[in-house]
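Every protein is a chain of amino acids, and every chain bends into a shape of its own. Below is the pair of lines this work produces for a single protein:
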Amino acid sequence: MATAPTGDDDLFDEFLSDRGHETETVGWQQEYNKKQCPECSGLHDTSASECTVCGWRPE
């Protein structure tokens, strides 16, 4: 599941990294000429900064 990082997510990422797991920052996906939300797959114009479907936003 993709979520925007918070303080607790940073701790969780550190916990995983310490145990050999890779973590990465999640951002918009591209779908043709639109941005696609990684959380709910909602499509938005390229100028979008927040998902209007689920409220997700990149960090």
Q: What stands out?
A: The helical segments are 7-18. The CA atoms of residues 35 and 48 lie 8 Å apart. Strands lie at 29-31, 34-36, 43-44.
